[in-house]
């Protein structure tokens, strides 16, 4: 199912099939992700949401028994034909549990920049401050930049992980249940941050929180048993498939 014009699609997933050994996980997924929007992916536990995110980030290349077939195009280029570093530079990922490196806040923030060859101290410093500010974290951490990131609260750690992913200017940010370990207040901060970021970044978020998906995403994909059952702008208000209706009931 496609929505909108093709040029708006930053990601085009075509006939994606993923298996682990003999077990089929994703079954012929085709999905277009619109640029500078938030797309949520919802569905019952085990339906393959995380596997889909990992496929987009080319992470399954590192999993020995994963077999991937089909195409994922980033800005029209097949990610299989891109250098892995280039894929990861353009498509960042943030996981469920806040996972800063066990290093200082500043080292967390400069890690990827240094990996990509940026050494100039002023450039690094400016990028760190600017990105922490964008993520609403600078005021909270400015006097602790050299202290361990593990001293931060869970919510701050997750915002740091988002900020860390943004330092190298990805075009797409994938988030796998980023708020599931957070309380309501911290969840709200992340939701507001993602809504702010969506004018500049394309965001794909996996969430079990249907109110969150409804609140922050423009497009939503409902998955079941490795398939996209329904995808579009108004699946909350007007679900077309009974399975979607059943899953979203009460939301
Ligand atoms: N490395 C792996 N090896 C074998 N099977 C795996 C592996 N990773 C995931 N799976 C299986 O793939 C299926 C889909 O898992 P996935 O994590 O993508 O689902 P999910 O929809 O994100 O689930 P949840 O909502 O519970 O996080 C599950 O049956 C899981 O056991």
From TrEMBL:
Keywords: ATP-binding, Nucleotide-binding, Transport. GO terms for molecular function: ATP binding; ATP hydrolysis activity; phosphate transmembrane transporter activity. It comes from the Bacteria. InterPro entries: AAA+_ATPase, ABC_transporter-like_ATP-bd, ABC_transporter-like_CS, P-loop_NTPase, PstB-like. CDD domains: ABC_PstB_phosphate_transporter. This is Phosphate ABC transporter ATP-binding protein, PhoT family. PANTHER family: ABC TRANSPORTER I FAMILY MEMBER 17. Gene3D superfamilies: P-loop containing nucleotide triphosphate hydrolases. Coiled coil: none annotated. Residues 11-248 form the ABC transporter domain. GO terms for cellular component: membrane. Pfam families: ABC_tran. It comes from Asaccharospora irregularis DSM 2635. One of its GO terms (biological process) is phosphate ion transmembrane transport.
